[in-house]
Q: What sequence folds into this?
């Protein structure tokens, strides 16, 4: 019975780590084998093996093997939180990096303080492999970018409003379309669940920068490679953006007034 429970526990860990990082489950199995081959017994042996093995895969093996699957690390943008990098959620089709390189240069010519920060992208291997909790980040073509924030005196800031970069929403104002209320009233309870994944709110003195966010989106729209941009309808309305590339993502997804979703054609 004890052996059976151990198998169930290991199976759960394997599934959890695979869903979270794509390669974590495989690294866990490798670590089990290595730990069993170490005859010396000590507390935390498996963890002591897993952590360095995972880091070797994360920083050495995967970056060199991902290009074989048409993926590369996100470049020319900074991670909003380094958990994204540690969890292998920072891989994209290289064409996105081409866009980011040109986009970053243009933005800094407009405002030297304006840098791009990214959130979740895609896993490094295999099209169709899901990236929970996202519905579509499974082919290297998708990337979430942070909204732009500013100080009370209007100076662009490169800080975030949550530790994860998600979950601090710029909700609709009076007179703006309230798609959030419509989706929740229709039974899509998950629509604003990202508020539980902030991992803590920070920099509460910052405010949403309409100028900075609009500039980022307008520049992204100039790239032929970009097929769609997702933001909430009330932000599209507030920023006076009319381009057909700016789409509504639907109630089955989560609300997009805490980040900007871009994707290749």
A:
């Amino acid at each position: 019975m004890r052996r059976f429970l151990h198998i169930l526990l290991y199976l759960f860990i394997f599934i959890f780590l695979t869903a979270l990082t794509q390669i974590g489950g495989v690294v866990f199995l490798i670590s089990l084998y290595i730990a069993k081959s170490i005859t010396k017994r000590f507390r935390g042996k498996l963890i002591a093996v897993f952590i360095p093995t995972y880091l070797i895969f994360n920083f050495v093996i995967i970056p060199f093997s991902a290009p074989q699957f048409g993926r590369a690390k996100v470049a020319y943008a900074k991670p909003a939180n380094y958990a994204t990098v540690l969890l292998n959620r920072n891989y994209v089709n290289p064409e996105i990096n081409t866009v980011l390189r040109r986009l970053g240069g243009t933005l800094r010519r407009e405002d030297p303080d304006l840098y791009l920060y990214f959130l979740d992208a895609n896993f490094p291997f295999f099209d169709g492999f899901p990236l929970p909790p996202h519905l579509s980040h499974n082919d290297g073509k998708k990337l979430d970018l942070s909204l732009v924030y500013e100080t009370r005196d209007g100076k662009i800031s490169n800080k975030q409003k949550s530790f994860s970069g998600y979950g601090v929403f710029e909700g609709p104002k009076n007179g703006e379309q309230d798609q959030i209320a419509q989706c929740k009233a229709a039974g899509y309870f998950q629509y604003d669940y990202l508020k539980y994944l902030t991992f803590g709110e920070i920099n509460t003195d910052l405010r949403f920068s309409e100028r900075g966010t609009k500039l980022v989106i307008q520049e992204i729209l100039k790239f032929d490679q970009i097929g769609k941009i997702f933001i909430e309808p009330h932000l599209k309305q507030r920023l006076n953006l009319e381009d057909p590339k700016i789409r509504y993502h639907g109630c089955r997804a989560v609300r997009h007034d805490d980040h900007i979703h871009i994707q290749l054609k």
User: Anything to note?
Assistant: The two ends are 52 Å apart (CA to CA). Residues 132 and 164 are 15 Å apart (CA to CA).
